Amino acid sequence: VLKAKQKTSWGGAVLSTQVDVLTGEKVATPSKLTWKLPTPFGCPFICVDKLEMDKGGKYKLETSTDKAYPGLKIECKSDLADINKTTVGCTYSGVKNLQVIMNHKLTKPQDFTGEATYTCPVAVCGVKFTSAVLSGGLPDFGVRFLKGPFFGSVTAKEKLAVYTAHCMYQATPEVKLAATYQHGGKGSGSGSLAISCKGLYKVKVSQDQTVCCSVKHSVTKGFTVLAGAKYGVAKGDLSYGLQLSVE
């Protein structure tokens, strides 16, 4: 994958390109073009966050505005093909330490999802729900803690039947250690351990005997190379990839 980003003088518009190489497919121009228009046609009330066309000729449009009401941000996403797939999202953060997010289909507002979070001095508590709560369904719950070099979180999902725990410890300014474990559900008993050095070198070992590693290298300012590999000890299978980014 080769990525490039170029800022233009047209109202701060940004053009991003992505070219897939060695895909194994017979594609003449395997490219993706993405525009960002902060003030489309000089209009300051709406922002086009993404106008994208991929190699298959499919489009994505994402727009947003925070001018409708203080503390309220409204977002709209569309594929420019089917209005029934258009989604609308609202984020309200007008109350201190509280954030509420609601999303629904433009043509089916009764089919919604939402979440609310409240921030305390050392913890963030949250609840996530869908329209199923109107018929007696249970929401998902979560809490995360941050104190010094320690971070931890616990979530309860699937009607309080699946619990997942995460923890992270920053051993030094350059080294981070992390672990995760799941109890309940199909993945009960699964977990992983990971280590990161300078945010550039990462290794993760999973309970299913899979080892993943990645290296990120900045060749020069604005030109970055990311290489990664995955090895399954049980089956002996190996996969790898390379990504180039130009900004």
Order of helices and strands: EEEEEEEEEEEEEEEEEEE
Characterize the biggest β-sheet. Answer: 19 strands, mixed, barrel
- Averaging pLDDT over every residue, what do you get? 91
**Model regions low in confidence, pLDDT < 50 over at least 5 residues:** none
Report the sheet-strand fraction: over 45%
Distance between the termini: 14 Å
Helix content bin: under 10%
What coarse outline follows from CA principal-axis ratios? globular
Rg from Cα: 22 Å
Query: If helices are DSSP runs of H or I spanning 4 or more residues, what is the number of helices?
Result: 0
Quick one: how many beta strands?
Answer: 19
Broad structural category:
mainly beta
Give an overview in words.
The chain has 247 residues and is an all-beta fold. 0% of the residues lie in helices and 63% in strands. The protein has no helices and 19 strands. It has a 19-stranded mixed beta barrel. A hairpin with a 4-residue loop joins β12 and β13. The chain is globular and about 55 Å long.
Give the key terms.
globular; single chain; 19-stranded mixed barrel; mainly beta; 247 residues
Short description:
With 247 residues, this protein is mainly β. Helix content is 0%, strand content 63%.
Topology at a glance:
Blueprint lengths: L1 E6 L6 E6 L11 E7 L9 E7 L5 E11 L2 E7 L8 E6 L5 E8 L2 E12 L3 E8 L9 E8 L2 E8 L4 E9 L4 E9 L7 E7 L3 E6 L3 E11 L2 E10 L4 E10 L1
Parallel strand pairs: 1-19
Antiparallel strand pairs: 1-2, 2-3, 3-4, 4-5, 5-6, 6-7, 7-8, 8-9, 9-10, 10-11, 11-12, 12-13, 13-14, 14-15, 15-16, 16-17, 17-18, 18-19
